[in-house]
Design the sequence.
């Protein structure tokens, strides 16, 4: 489902004539099968977010190959990648990244609007998805009127609404207390079991790492052997 081959990345700092190159990823290769939950662990600065941003196309690839659901995305134009991403990948972030001026309903409806779904179908899918994450009755609440756990559920619903095959998550429980964290982990396990969504989850948290079928460990931009839980 996710295949990464010889992916390297470097950032350039400084102005012309005084440029410094920082190698952040060094020929990273791995494969994740459909339906796996894989956690990505490693010290701060080891390159985890950079790897996730390259897989999602948020950062332009420099060298190496990324294949998602059998499609080599490295040859796609930015527009084609955006379209592909919309129907294939959902995202969950530590700080939820909800649009504050929109209700829970509107936040979840947005990907459907971007994907050209009709208003009637949008209504059904948005309500169904909010129900799936246990947020019936909270449709008209703004993010500021929801708890952290509820906001993260809205962001999970937004990630789910276009039926993605893959969900990429960057420290999804980083802003949650331990009880709310457990609820979110149970939701991830349920989505994986019922919808067979493949998850790649960056985490520093042992409880999160424990739900993975496997763990990939990064060190200084390189992948050191993954562990099977
Ligand atoms: N836009 C950028 N420009 C320059 N350097 C960057 C940029 N983004 C990240 N870096 C550097 O790349 C390295 C890897 O960063 P990255 O965010 O991928 O690490 P991480 O493992 O996700 O860390 P954390 O666990 O703290 O989120 C760090 O040294 C960081 O300073």
Sequence:
């Amino acid at each position: 489902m996710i295949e990464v081959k010889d992916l390297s990345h470097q950032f350039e700092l400084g102005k012309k004539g005084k440029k410094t190159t920082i190698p952040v990823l060094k020929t990273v290769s791995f494969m994740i099968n459909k339906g796996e939950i894989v956690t990505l662990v490693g010290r701060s600065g080891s390159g985890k977010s950079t790897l996730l941003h390259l897989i999602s196309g948020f950062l332009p690839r420099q060298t190496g190959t990324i294949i998602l659901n059998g499609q080599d995305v490295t040859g796609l134009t930015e527009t084609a990648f955006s379209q592909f991403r919309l129907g294939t990948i959902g995202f969950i972030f530590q700080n939820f990244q909800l649009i504050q001026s929109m209700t829970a309903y509107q936040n979840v409806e947005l990907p459907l609007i971007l994907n050209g779904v009709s208003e009637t179908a949008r209504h059904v899918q948005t309500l169904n998805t909010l129900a799936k994450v246990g947020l019936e009755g909270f449709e008209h609440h703004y993010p500021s009127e929801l708890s952290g756990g509820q906001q993260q559920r809205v962001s999970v619903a937004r990630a789910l609404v276009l039926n993605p095959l893959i969900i990429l998550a960057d420290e999804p429980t980083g802003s949650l207390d331990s009880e709310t964290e457990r609820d979110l982990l149970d939701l991830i396990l349920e989505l994986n079991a019922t919808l067979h969504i493949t998850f790649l989850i960056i985490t520093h948290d042992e409880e999160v790492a424990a739900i993975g079928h496997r763990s990939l460990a990064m060190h200084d931009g390189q992948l050191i052997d993954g562990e099977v839980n």
